[in-house]
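Quiz preparation item.
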């Protein structure tokens, strides 16, 4: 920005110095620009601030996971085959000891022979480290790579998922702001006068209505305690009905029949 005007300069190196070889002022619809048509996007806002990627910490652990996995594979390969050993004296004619079903070793009295096999806990400890790092990556990644094991209540599940999705929601909100700014610049460039509205879908986790809640709503609408519209609105919020208006159109075209509904 030079004197409040967006200016482009082309720099080229002349021997050891950099000099301006070209300078011009871009225009939009014959008007000079009072700002640079560019939108910064990071993980927190739309400023030039440099921030760490969302999964940066997980990527660091992933590198360590790879190294440990290489150690496990190397140890498994190195200890996979037993190592023969011999304690004692051999006859002078036996300099080499071939191993096989038809080979015989002639040893002096008191000599011992056997196989050395891996029996320590070294590989086990490495495997435990691998499992620990995998759990860390799952936690840092907000369980986007692995589901929660065990049984959770609906309330606990919603609280946990809401906490885990907060980072994604924050990033989606930043993208909302960035895309709105981009569209506003586009409208201004094309000479369009209009209000820009844009919002990304932030429903990252399916949250279908549990059977108990659906049964309670059905009993309420049958008893006349809530309206059909409220019932459909709740079905839409519970991701059972996609579109309330379309569902009402479908219902209006159906004949009225008495049915008994049983929910498992």
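Solution:
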């Amino acid at each position: 920005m030079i004197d409040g005007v967006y200016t482009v300069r082309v720099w080229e190196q002349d021997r050891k110095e950099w000099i301006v070889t070209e300078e011009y002022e871009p225009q939009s619809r014959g008007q000079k620009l009072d700002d640079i048509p560019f939108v910064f996007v990071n993980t927190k806002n739309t400023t030039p601030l440099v921030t760490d990627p969302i999964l940066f910490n997980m990527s660091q652990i992933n590198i360590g996971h790879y190294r440990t996995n290489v150690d496990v594979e190397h140890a498994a390969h190195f200890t996979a085959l037993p190592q023969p050993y011999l304690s004692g004296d051999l006859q002078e004619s036996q300099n080499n000891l071939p191993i096989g079903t038809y080979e015989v070793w002639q040893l002096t009295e008191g000599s011992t022979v056997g196989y050395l096999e891996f029996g320590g806990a070294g590989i086990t400890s490495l495997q435990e480290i691998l499992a620990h790092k995998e759990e860390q990556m799952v936690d840092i990644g907000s369980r986007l790579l692995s589901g929660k094991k065990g049984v959770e209540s609906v309330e606990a599940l919603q609280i946990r998922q809401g906490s885990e999705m907060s980072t994604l929601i924050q990033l989606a909100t930043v993208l909302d702001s960035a895309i709105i700014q981009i569209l506003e610049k586009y409208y201004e460039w094309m000479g369009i006068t209009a209000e820009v509205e844009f919002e990304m879908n932030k429903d990252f986790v399916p949250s279908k209505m549990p059977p108990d809640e659906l049964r309670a709503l059905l009993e309420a609408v049958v008893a006349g305690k809530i309206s059909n519209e409220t019932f459909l609105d709740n079905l839409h919020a519970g991701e059972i009905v996609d579109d309330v208006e379309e569902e009402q159109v479908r219902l209006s075209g159906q004949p009225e029949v008495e049915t008994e509904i049983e929910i498992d």
